[in-house]
Amino acid sequence: MTRYSKQTRILVAVDCIIFGFDGEILKLLLIQRGFEPEKNKWSLMGGFMEPNESTDEAAARILKQLTGLEGVYMEQMQVFGEPQRDPIERTLSIAYFAFIDIHKYEKQLSDDYHAEWFPLKEAPKLIFDHNNMVEKAREMLRYKAALHPLLFELLPEKFTIPQIQTLYENVYDTVLDKRNFSRKLLSTGLLIRQDEKDKGGSKKGAYYYKLDPAIYKDKFQAFLNFIPNPQAFLTA
Amino acid sequence: MTRYSKQTRILVAVDCIIFGFDGEILKLLLIQRGFEPEKNKWSLMGGFMEPNESTDEAAARILKQLTGLEGVYMEQMQVFGEPQRDPIERTLSIAYFAFIDIHKYEKQLSDDYHAEWFPLKEAPKLIFDHNNMVEKAREMLRYKAALHPLLFELLPEKFTIPQIQTLYENVYDTVLDKRNFSRKLLSTGLLIRQDEKDKGGSKKGAYYYKLDPAIYKDKFQAFLNFIPNPQAFLTA
DNA sequence: ACAAAAGTGTTCCCGATACACCCATGC
DNA sequence: GCATGGGTGTATCGGGAACACTTTTGT
């Protein structure tokens, strides 16, 4: 016996919801699909699973194809399995979301691929159920980022507290008190202050911080409660 | 064009991690696998996806085959996609977890299937990567139950506060203060006290409660913080 | 009357919030 | 010297945790 006979084999795709942050607003990386059906329509970056790779490997390969980046934070989100989601042929999609530092690769963008950043709020109509996937990813982002230090993955290695605050404000579409936010953040012990300052945002300059890798790893699963009243921001 | 040519189609299975609670300890429902390979070894309840069903439908179908139950709380957990996880043929598995009221079906158990409840802590060696799946499910259970009123799905429609407390204590392998626990629980507004009492556990008897369906639905996503220091119970 | 479990109330403390001022610098 | 954004300190409030006694009833 070398195969399970009589069972149906199914096409399996991996689609990536890729978030980036440019310092101002939260963005989503989309491509113009290069093949039929729906050629030239906007789409998430995706591809079919190959025979000898794991799902995580497939997701990493696909991300690399588009962005050239490796070692990026990715997480499996959910399988989308409605039988009719792809009109050509029944295809399961394993959705991953990924956070990248937008500046790390902005250059090679739209060379080989027609890729473009869209503000998350102004995403165009996407093929198949990709708009669903994006919405789901946005919910999951809000959910997880309220509890875990996830959003740091969207920032460069060195960042300032005003930057990370702006990012949180963007994700939750709200305004936070800078005194409380900064206290809460620093009290986690996650941040190591650098001597250098970022003079871009103001005359005075804001201190750069780096993550303490040990504490970051340690506290990643802890419930840190970055956002007051997080439930107010969760879709029911 | 009616198919994506040149792409590999893959076998996809759904495996269910089924939790139950008998009032004493948390249990896991396992079956003896009925076909090769690994015939007669203990296994999660699973099956192959069929062409015209969604993933959720597949999970529900498989659960029904084993337990006869419908309308059970199920949630997609994670895809397990290591290429070698099934030695016969590459098979993806979509893992679901399910919570059932153990008493609702205890009778028809092990008729058609060799099914058996195992205390979660004493689960036997399972086929393939099923022990991994169980471990992952246990982590997810602890994670979610610390925040959301999930464990009620394991209890009958009417239950007492000592019962639900025992369940929490079981899941987290700890002891909780009954005064604080009961106050916290009642303050959510989730519970409606019945007039009737359960005289089984004590002479005095404990009031039965039911869930308020509206509030339950409403607050399911809220962060309710049932467990003090939840991070202490999460695997890093 | 006594054992065994259910039910309830109070104090204390810490963490969360609201809120206002000084600091450094480029122009 | 003034405008701009960065950084810090304090009082208050509420929720969470620690903790002990009374109630019910079957035996």
UniProtKB/TrEMBL annotation, chains A, B:
Residues 9-142 form the Nudix hydrolase domain. CDD domains: NUDIX_NadM_like. It comes from the Bacteria. This is NUDIX domain-containing protein.
